[in-house]
């Protein structure tokens, strides 16, 4: 029988055991769904992504945007294009705009200020997902109205992190996440499942870190090998283990906002639906305009690259309803315990 208390107390030995087997999956999935219903309800919130630049200064071994990839057609959207796309998102009734890019220093502090100020006039929440910037930039953008910052930690194993991120350390990534949290952003962390060399104990460490930082948002997806990276011949993450980690994350941090990620849908046509059934409560439709959208190629086989914007949003809403949940209409900020049990 599943010991929920040991999961919530992040008992590393116990977590390693249940991550290593599918013996407990039925109980894990059922418990995660019950906790999702109790703490965040049946509403699923849409967060529309604008992937505004695929330039990146980093060298992560798994990522198709890495600086060394010469087989990628690079692009940068102008401030005007980004704001115009945000206006379209607001007109669709979606209340969160996610600004995502590689780590691209072309977008200066001032440029990001301009973008944030214009988008905040649209009465939407802004999530930044642009990698590691300076602590001063985080402060400036928060004061201008940026609401959330998503920076997945990718793995909480210091050794594995160092191998996958040349010249960087997990301690440095943690320092950035803690500063973002201190500044009052809703803070997003998260990790990949199935990374080369990753162990069940490493995945248990990921859950422990989510608990430690009290993550407001948690992004979990399978590792998908990219042929234009040094890890092109590695095996990818599997659906079952990734869903297990989504469900365990819901049990560990009950009130967090957890997306059913695009990567889940990319390895299985029903991956996102399973994610919603097993603890997720957010969907992030890709509203990057074409011709840019196909070139934000983190991994091959990415879904939703050529659909029209309205069709993509309507498809997402239909997906939510197909698993018996409802489309959230508000900003979908993280709920506090005292808001739930009043």
UniProtKB/TrEMBL annotation:
One of its GO terms (molecular function) is 4 iron, 4 sulfur cluster binding. The keyword NAD does not apply. This is Iron-only hydrogenase maturation protein HydE. S-adenosyl-L-methionine binds at residues 154, 173. (3R)-3-methyl-D-ornithine binds at residue 129. It comes from Fervidobacterium gondwanense DSM 13020. Pfam families: Radical_SAM. InterPro entries: Aldolase_TIM, BATS_dom, Elp3/MiaA/NifB-like_rSAM, FeFe-hyd_HydE_rSAM, HydE/PylB-like, rSAM, rSAM_sf. SMART domains: BATS, Elp3. Its cofactor is [4Fe-4S] cluster; [2Fe-2S] cluster. Keywords: 4Fe-4S, Iron, Iron-sulfur, Metal-binding, S-adenosyl-L-methionine. Binds 1 [4Fe-4S] cluster. The cluster is coordinated with 3 cysteines and an exchangeable S-adenosyl-L-methionine.
